[in-house]
Protein backbone atom coordinates (compact mmCIF):
# COMPACT_ATOMS: atom_id res chain seq x y z
CA UNK A 1 0.00 0.00 0.00
CA UNK A 2 1.57 3.25 -1.18
CA UNK A 3 0.15 5.58 1.46
CA UNK A 4 2.47 8.53 0.86
CA UNK A 5 1.68 8.53 -2.85
CA UNK A 6 3.60 9.77 -5.86
CA UNK A 7 4.41 13.37 -4.89
CA UNK A 8 6.06 13.63 -1.47
CA UNK A 9 7.47 16.69 0.28
CA UNK A 10 10.68 16.07 2.23
CA UNK A 11 10.96 18.82 4.86
CA UNK A 12 13.95 19.86 6.98
CA UNK A 13 15.00 23.19 8.47
CA UNK A 14 18.27 24.69 9.65
CA UNK A 15 18.54 25.43 13.35
CA UNK A 16 17.29 23.60 16.43
CA UNK A 17 15.81 20.74 14.38
CA UNK A 18 19.16 20.02 12.73
CA UNK A 19 21.78 18.72 15.17
CA UNK A 20 25.02 17.93 13.40
CA UNK A 21 23.55 19.46 10.24
CA UNK A 22 22.24 15.98 9.57
CA UNK A 23 18.76 16.83 8.29
CA UNK A 24 19.91 19.76 6.16
CA UNK A 25 22.70 17.51 4.88
CA UNK A 26 20.09 15.01 3.72
CA UNK A 27 18.27 17.76 1.85
CA UNK A 28 21.55 18.91 0.28
CA UNK A 29 22.21 15.36 -0.94
CA UNK A 30 18.75 15.21 -2.47
CA UNK A 31 19.27 18.62 -4.12
CA UNK A 32 22.44 17.31 -5.74
CA UNK A 33 20.55 14.46 -7.44
CA UNK A 34 18.78 16.61 -10.01
CA UNK A 35 17.77 20.15 -10.89
CA UNK A 36 14.94 21.74 -8.93
CA UNK A 37 12.58 24.62 -9.61
CA UNK A 38 11.30 26.92 -6.88
CA UNK A 39 7.57 26.48 -6.38
CA UNK A 40 7.02 28.87 -3.49
CA UNK A 41 9.02 30.98 -1.05
CA UNK A 42 7.89 33.01 1.94
CA UNK A 43 8.32 36.70 2.66
CA UNK A 44 11.12 36.75 5.28
CA UNK A 45 9.68 39.92 6.87
CA UNK A 46 6.69 37.90 8.08
CA UNK A 47 8.42 34.96 9.74
CA UNK A 48 12.03 35.69 10.71
CA UNK A 49 13.58 37.62 13.57
CA UNK A 50 16.72 39.16 12.09
CA UNK A 51 18.38 39.43 15.50
CA UNK A 52 18.10 35.64 15.73
CA UNK A 53 18.58 34.68 12.06
CA UNK A 54 20.61 37.52 10.62
CA UNK A 55 20.93 38.43 6.95
CA UNK A 56 24.41 38.12 5.48
CA UNK A 57 26.39 40.27 3.10
CA UNK A 58 28.71 39.18 0.31
CA UNK A 59 30.42 40.45 -2.82
CA UNK A 60 29.43 39.22 -6.27
CA UNK A 61 31.83 38.44 -9.12
CA UNK A 62 31.97 42.13 -10.05
CA UNK A 63 32.68 43.30 -6.52
CA UNK A 64 29.20 44.63 -5.80
CA UNK A 65 27.89 44.06 -2.28
CA UNK A 66 24.54 42.42 -1.74
CA UNK A 67 22.39 41.10 1.09
CA UNK A 68 21.08 37.56 1.49
CA UNK A 69 18.02 37.24 3.73
CA UNK A 70 16.81 34.20 5.68
CA UNK A 71 14.50 32.14 3.52
CA UNK A 72 12.33 29.07 3.29
CA UNK A 73 11.05 27.58 0.06
CA UNK A 74 9.40 24.61 -1.60
CA UNK A 75 11.22 23.05 -4.56
CA UNK A 76 10.11 20.45 -7.11
CA UNK A 77 12.31 18.31 -9.37
CA UNK A 78 12.55 19.69 -12.88
CA UNK A 79 12.76 16.24 -14.50
CA UNK A 80 11.40 13.58 -12.11
CA UNK A 81 12.86 10.12 -12.48
CA UNK A 82 11.25 6.78 -11.78
CA UNK A 83 9.21 6.41 -8.64
CA UNK A 84 7.72 9.15 -6.47
CA UNK A 85 8.64 12.80 -6.98
CA UNK A 86 10.51 14.11 -3.95
CA UNK A 87 9.77 17.80 -3.43
CA UNK A 88 11.98 19.65 -0.96
CA UNK A 89 10.80 22.06 1.72
CA UNK A 90 13.78 23.68 3.39
CA UNK A 91 15.31 26.86 4.75
CA UNK A 92 15.68 28.56 8.13
CA UNK A 93 13.37 27.71 10.99
CA UNK A 94 10.93 30.62 11.43
CA UNK A 95 10.94 32.68 14.61
CA UNK A 96 7.24 33.63 14.64
CA UNK A 97 3.81 33.10 13.07
CA UNK A 98 4.26 29.33 12.84
CA UNK A 99 0.60 28.69 12.09
CA UNK A 100 0.62 31.07 9.15
CA UNK A 101 4.01 29.72 7.99
CA UNK A 102 2.82 26.11 7.96
CA UNK A 103 -0.57 27.00 6.46
CA UNK A 104 1.07 28.91 3.62
CA UNK A 105 3.07 25.88 2.51
CA UNK A 106 0.25 23.38 3.09
CA UNK A 107 -2.02 25.48 0.88
CA UNK A 108 0.59 25.29 -1.89
CA UNK A 109 0.92 21.54 -1.35
CA UNK A 110 -2.83 21.07 -1.74
CA UNK A 111 -2.88 23.26 -4.83
CA UNK A 112 -0.15 21.17 -6.45
CA UNK A 113 -1.62 17.77 -5.49
CA UNK A 114 1.11 16.77 -3.04
CA UNK A 115 0.26 13.31 -1.67
CA UNK A 116 2.58 12.93 1.34
CA UNK A 117 4.96 14.68 3.72
CA UNK A 118 8.08 13.35 5.42
CA UNK A 119 9.79 15.57 7.99
CA UNK A 120 13.47 15.05 8.82
CA UNK A 121 15.15 16.10 12.05
CA UNK A 122 18.16 15.35 14.21
CA UNK A 123 18.76 15.77 17.93
CA UNK A 124 21.73 15.47 20.26
CA UNK A 125 21.47 12.22 22.24
CA UNK A 126 23.33 9.94 24.63
CA UNK A 127 24.37 7.50 21.90
CA UNK A 128 27.76 6.18 20.73
CA UNK A 129 29.16 7.13 17.33
CA UNK A 130 30.47 3.57 16.89
CA UNK A 131 27.06 1.94 16.58
CA UNK A 132 24.38 2.25 13.88
CA UNK A 133 22.59 5.59 14.10
CA UNK A 134 19.16 5.34 15.70
CA UNK A 135 16.24 6.65 13.66
CA UNK A 136 12.89 7.18 15.35
CA UNK A 137 10.23 6.82 12.64
CA UNK A 138 6.65 7.73 13.50
CA UNK A 139 3.35 8.78 12.01
CA UNK A 140 -0.09 9.89 13.17
CA UNK A 141 -1.62 8.20 10.13
CA UNK A 142 -2.78 4.63 10.91
CA UNK A 143 -2.43 3.50 7.30
CA UNK A 144 1.13 4.85 7.13
CA UNK A 145 2.09 3.10 10.36
CA UNK A 146 0.77 -0.19 9.05
CA UNK A 147 2.29 0.18 5.58
CA UNK A 148 5.77 1.29 6.65
CA UNK A 149 6.17 -0.21 10.11
CA UNK A 150 6.17 3.16 11.88
CA UNK A 151 5.42 3.93 15.51
CA UNK A 152 2.87 6.28 17.00
CA UNK A 153 4.23 8.89 19.36
CA UNK A 154 2.77 9.07 22.85
CA UNK A 155 4.58 12.29 23.74
CA UNK A 156 2.63 15.22 25.18
CA UNK A 157 4.31 18.58 25.58
CA UNK A 158 5.97 21.43 23.74
CA UNK A 159 6.51 21.08 20.00
CA UNK A 160 8.66 22.55 17.24
CA UNK A 161 8.06 23.58 13.65
CA UNK A 162 8.32 20.07 12.19
CA UNK A 163 5.53 18.85 14.45
CA UNK A 164 3.46 21.85 13.38
CA UNK A 165 3.89 20.81 9.75
CA UNK A 166 2.95 17.22 10.58
CA UNK A 167 -0.18 18.44 12.35
CA UNK A 168 -1.32 20.81 9.63
CA UNK A 169 -0.64 18.30 6.86
CA UNK A 170 -2.59 15.54 8.61
CA UNK A 171 -5.51 17.92 9.21
CA UNK A 172 -5.46 18.76 5.49
CA UNK A 173 -5.61 15.08 4.56
CA UNK A 174 -1.94 14.70 3.59
CA UNK A 175 -0.41 11.55 5.19
CA UNK A 176 2.83 12.20 7.06
CA UNK A 177 5.85 10.40 8.43
CA UNK A 178 8.54 11.78 10.72
CA UNK A 179 12.17 10.63 10.82
CA UNK A 180 14.43 11.77 13.66
CA UNK A 181 18.08 10.78 13.97
CA UNK A 182 20.12 10.63 17.17
CA UNK A 183 23.43 12.52 17.00
CA UNK A 184 26.14 11.67 19.58
CA UNK A 185 26.18 14.78 21.74
CA UNK A 186 29.92 14.58 22.48
CA UNK A 187 30.70 15.22 18.81
CA UNK A 188 28.43 18.28 18.55
CA UNK A 189 31.31 20.44 17.37
CA UNK A 190 32.32 17.91 14.69
CA UNK A 191 29.74 19.09 12.19
CA UNK A 192 28.58 18.08 9.74
CA UNK A 193 27.75 14.51 10.81
CA UNK A 194 27.71 12.47 7.58
CA UNK A 195 27.02 9.15 9.32
CA UNK A 196 23.79 10.59 10.70
CA UNK A 197 22.80 12.06 7.34
CA UNK A 198 23.46 8.67 5.74
CA UNK A 199 21.17 6.95 8.26
CA UNK A 200 18.36 9.40 7.51
CA UNK A 201 18.71 8.83 3.77
CA UNK A 202 18.80 5.05 4.22
CA UNK A 203 15.50 5.18 6.10
CA UNK A 204 14.05 7.65 3.62
CA UNK A 205 14.80 5.26 0.77
CA UNK A 206 12.98 2.49 2.65
CA UNK A 207 9.90 4.69 2.91
CA UNK A 208 9.85 6.12 -0.61
CA UNK A 209 11.68 3.57 -2.74
CA UNK A 210 13.70 6.40 -4.31
CA UNK A 211 17.37 5.51 -4.74
CA UNK A 212 19.60 8.32 -3.49
CA UNK A 213 23.26 8.06 -4.63
CA UNK A 214 25.36 8.21 -1.46
CA UNK A 215 28.69 6.49 -2.08
CA UNK A 216 30.52 9.73 -1.31
CA UNK A 217 28.52 10.11 1.88
CA UNK A 218 29.50 6.60 2.98
CA UNK A 219 33.17 7.53 2.53
CA UNK A 220 32.67 10.73 4.51
CA UNK A 221 30.88 8.79 7.26
CA UNK A 222 33.80 6.38 7.59
CA UNK A 223 36.24 9.26 7.81
CA UNK A 224 34.06 11.05 10.37
CA UNK A 225 33.89 7.98 12.60
CA UNK A 226 37.64 7.39 12.32
CA UNK A 227 38.38 10.99 13.32
CA UNK A 228 36.30 10.62 16.48
CA UNK A 229 38.00 7.29 17.24
CA UNK A 230 41.35 9.06 16.99
CA UNK A 231 40.23 11.82 19.37
CA UNK A 232 38.94 9.27 21.88
CA UNK A 233 42.21 7.34 21.74
CA UNK A 234 43.95 10.41 23.18
CA UNK A 235 41.33 11.07 25.87
CA UNK A 236 40.70 8.22 28.31
CA UNK A 237 37.70 9.92 29.93
CA UNK A 238 36.05 10.27 26.54
CA UNK A 239 36.94 6.69 25.62
CA UNK A 240 35.42 5.34 28.84
CA UNK A 241 32.29 7.39 28.35
CA UNK A 242 31.92 6.00 24.82
CA UNK A 243 32.35 2.46 26.18
CA UNK A 244 29.51 3.13 28.65
CA UNK A 245 27.27 4.33 25.84
CA UNK A 246 28.18 1.25 23.79
CA UNK A 247 27.22 -1.06 26.66
CA UNK A 248 23.87 0.70 27.01
CA UNK A 249 23.21 0.54 23.28
CA UNK A 250 24.18 -3.13 23.09
CA UNK A 251 21.74 -3.88 25.92
CA UNK A 252 18.97 -2.12 24.01
CA UNK A 253 19.84 -4.09 20.88
CA UNK A 254 19.97 -7.46 22.64
CA UNK A 255 17.22 -10.04 21.93
CA UNK A 256 16.16 -9.82 25.58
CA UNK A 257 15.25 -6.13 25.33
CA UNK A 258 11.55 -5.64 24.66
CA UNK A 259 10.26 -2.96 22.34
CA UNK A 260 8.24 -1.46 25.21
CA UNK A 261 11.32 -1.21 27.42
CA UNK A 262 13.28 0.55 24.71
CA UNK A 263 10.41 2.93 23.99
CA UNK A 264 10.05 3.75 27.69
CA UNK A 265 13.77 4.43 28.02
CA UNK A 266 13.64 6.65 24.96
CA UNK A 267 10.70 8.61 26.39
CA UNK A 268 12.54 9.08 29.71
CA UNK A 269 15.54 10.45 27.88
CA UNK A 270 13.44 12.89 25.88
CA UNK A 271 11.64 14.21 28.94
CA UNK A 272 14.97 14.60 30.77
CA UNK A 273 16.19 16.80 27.92
CA UNK A 274 13.21 19.05 28.35
CA UNK A 275 13.35 20.71 24.93
CA UNK A 276 14.09 17.55 22.97
CA UNK A 277 10.71 15.88 22.59
CA UNK A 278 9.00 18.97 21.33
CA UNK A 279 10.31 18.59 17.82
CA UNK A 280 10.82 14.87 17.91
CA UNK A 281 7.31 13.89 18.87
CA UNK A 282 3.94 15.46 19.15
**Unreliable segments of 5+ consecutive residues:** 275-282
CATH architecture: 3-Layer(aba) Sandwich
CATH topology: Rossmann fold
Could you give the distance between the termini? 25 Å
Strand numbers in spatial order across the main sheet? 2-5-6-1-7-9-8
The number of helical runs is: 10
Helix/strand-derived class? Answer: alpha/beta
CATH homologous superfamily, by name? PAC-like subunit
Strand fraction equals 15-25%
Number of strands: 9
**What number is the mean pLDDT?**
87
Radius of gyration: 19 Å
The dominant shape is globular
CATH class equals Alpha Beta
Helix fraction bin = 40-55%
Task: Give the H and E element order.
Answer: EHEHEEEEHEEHHEHHHHH
- Structural domain tally: 1
The major sheet is characterized as: 7 strands, mixed
Give the assembly state of these chains: single chain
What is the topological layout?
Elements: E1 7-14, H1 22-31, E2 36-41, H2 44-47, E3 56-59, E4 65-68, E5 72-77, E6 85-92, H3 98-111, E7 116-125, E8 135-138, H4 142-148, H5 161-171, E9 176-184, H6 194-208, H7 215-233, H8 236-253, H9 259-273, H10 276-280
What does this molecule look like?
By secondary structure, the chain is of the alpha/beta class. Mean pLDDT is 87; it is low at 275-282. The chain is globular. The protein has a single domain (7-59, 66-280), classed as PAC-like subunit (Rossmann fold, 3-Layer(aba) Sandwich). It is built from 10 helices and 9 strands. The protein has helices at residues 22-31, 44-47, 98-111, 142-148, 161-171, 194-208, 215-233, 236-253, 259-273, 276-280; strands at residues 7-14, 36-41, 56-59, 65-68, 72-77, 85-92, 116-125, 135-138, 176-184. It has a 7-stranded mixed beta sheet, with helices on both faces. It starts with 6 loop residues before the first strand and ends with a helix. A hairpin with a 7-residue loop joins strand 5 (72-77) and strand 6. Helix 1 (22-31) packs across helix 6 (194-208), helix 6 (194-208) packs antiparallel against helix 7 and helix 7 packs across helix 8.
